[in-house]
Amino acid sequence: MINLTIGEKVWQAVVYFILILLSLICLLPFLYVVAVSVTPESEVLRRGIVIIPETFTFLAYKEVFISHGIGQAYKITLFRTIVGTLLNVFFTVIAAYPLSKKYLPGRSSFLLFIVFTMMFGGGLIPTYLLIRSLGLLNSPWVLIIPTLISAFNLVIIKGFFEQLPAEIEESARVDGASELQSLWRIILPLSLPVLSTISLFYAVGHWNSYFDAIVYINDSNLMPLQVILRNILLNVATQSADSLANSGAVSTFAVQMAAVVVTTVPILIVYPFMQKHFTKGVLLGSVKG
């Protein structure tokens, strides 16, 4: 057991106090949102800031799920997040693996083209015309295919692959393994930290994205969760509190907070399981360029 001096103990206590204070600063806004979503309007008006409700009501969540099409939006968002992330990681790995080999013909030119796309884009109108010519408008695939490979994530995975000892693959080739077998059986199991990190990047991006759906989709049944949340935040505020009260619902503010909770909690549940790989994956994949 390490014996600390009085000065070290005081410094340690100060550090813990600062960390606890910063944690509370980050946590309190979310607790406030959750509390308001389950608190009657009268109590919110009486107390002002509510962290621990005295009375609970889930009418705001009922209003969100029944009146705003959250269920269908969840299906679209889950499809986009799960299928999109799997395809993103697959094609990013398939592209990054050969680019990590210095003996690949034209490697420098390919990398130059990829980095170029990180700094320059075609713009919204040319992209829209391209999407329309491909027949992807009003399709759930328009939320996945145009962003199939992120140049930034590709560079991170490529850098990770370059750090793996070349002797591992050489020994696999001596045993008769092909490039795909080496990738599947050796490289990918060693790359779980960076793959978990990239998967988290892609999944959070899919879950939070809404602008592409607004631009490329007109069918309300194909709108993802974040678009529905945006519509709730914009439209519910225009309704009078009396109209909601007459329909048996709660205040507009509670409905808005309930919509925020419904769209935020799932990704918060997933994140802790990926966090242990997050820092390690980013650092290992970004040492080399």
Automatic annotation (TrEMBL):
One of its GO terms (biological process) is transmembrane transport. Residues 74-274 form the ABC transmembrane type-1 domain. It holds the Pfam family BPD_transp_1. It is a multi-pass membrane protein. It is found in: Cell membrane. One of its GO terms (cellular component) is plasma membrane. The chain crosses the membrane at residues 13-36, 76-97, 109-129, 141-161, 182-204, 253-274. Keywords: Cell membrane, Membrane, Transmembrane, Transmembrane helix, Transport. Belongs to the binding-protein-dependent transport system permease family. This is Protein LplC.
